[in-house]
Amino acid sequence: MAAPDLYKEIQANMDATNYKTAIDRLNTLQARFPFDDFGTQAQIDLIYANYMNQDFEAAVDAADRFIREHPRHPDVDYAYYMKGVAFFDSDVEFLHRWFGHDNFQRDPANSQKSFEAFGLMLERFPDSRYAGDARQRMVFLRERLADFDWQAADWYMRRGAWVSALQRSYSIIQHYPQTPRTEDALQIMYSCYKKLGLDDLAASTQQLLETNYPGAPLDYTPRGPV
To answer: Which CATH number does the domain housing residue 186 bear?
Structure first.
């Protein structure tokens, strides 16, 4: 079958949401015509087809392959974007399927990968048509990742592990500033510095707290059971 005819059938499969068949035929198309426009388009379409088939790992693999083989293609920003989306949705899908809501105690490895993929896309293609959506997703991811570090810091605080709590709260300040957990992080840092006898650092943290959160308590109160 000629490439245009095969691609026409693939489009019909996609329109009918028959993604499994579309994926099989896209793999055939790119294998038969690896060096023409149809083979290249098949690689792009495989990213989307695998994503829609909820095979997020395969979507990431297809995106990575396209980025590796076509780094200067005019649609390579799409591959970066879809890589971020696949990691994003794989994490959110798991959370809602098993917990019915966001559970920030779960390891956010895929959220971190999604955040990094979107960040790289925006760094390389700041004017991409996907930039707006990527930025909005990064806001959500930044807060999720900050929440995870806060959960860990709170756990360490309840157990008197001041250095570990300090490291987690500092991660929020360093990597996820201007999130709702910033105030908690500064309070944890102040409390840990006081416990560790680092009065100069406690004083500088106090100044940051009073400047950015006037009237807020200095000491952190753990939120959960020991």
So the answer is: 1.25.40
Helix (H, G, I), strand (E, B) or coil at 212: helix
How many Å separate Cα 107 from the centre of its chain? 12
Residue 191, both tokens:
């409390």
Interatomic CA distance for residues 39 and 84, integer angstroms: 23
What whole-number distance in Å separates Cα of residue 116 and Cα of residue 142? Answer: 11
pTM, to two decimals: 0.82
Contact 77, 121 (CB under 8 A): yes
Select from 49, 52, 51, 27 the least CA-distant residue to 38: 27
Say whether pLDDT at 56 is over 60.
Answer: yes
User: What is the amino acid identity at position 45?
Assistant: D
pLDDT digits (tens, 9 = 90+) for 144-184: 999 999 999 999 999 999 999 999 999 999 999 889 999 99
Comparison of pLDDT for 102 and 18, the residue scoring more? 18
- Tell me, yes or no, whether 60 and 37 share the same domain: no
Query: Does residue 164 contact residue 137 with C-beta atoms inside 8 Å?
Result: no
For residue 170, give Cα distances in angstroms to 13, 119, 150, 153, 173: 50, 21, 10, 10, 5
Q: Kindly state whether residue 136 falls inside one of the protein's structural domains.
A: no
CA distance 137 to 186: 25
- The verdict on 180 and 217 lying in the same domain is yes
Least confident of 36-40, 41-45, 83-87: 36-40
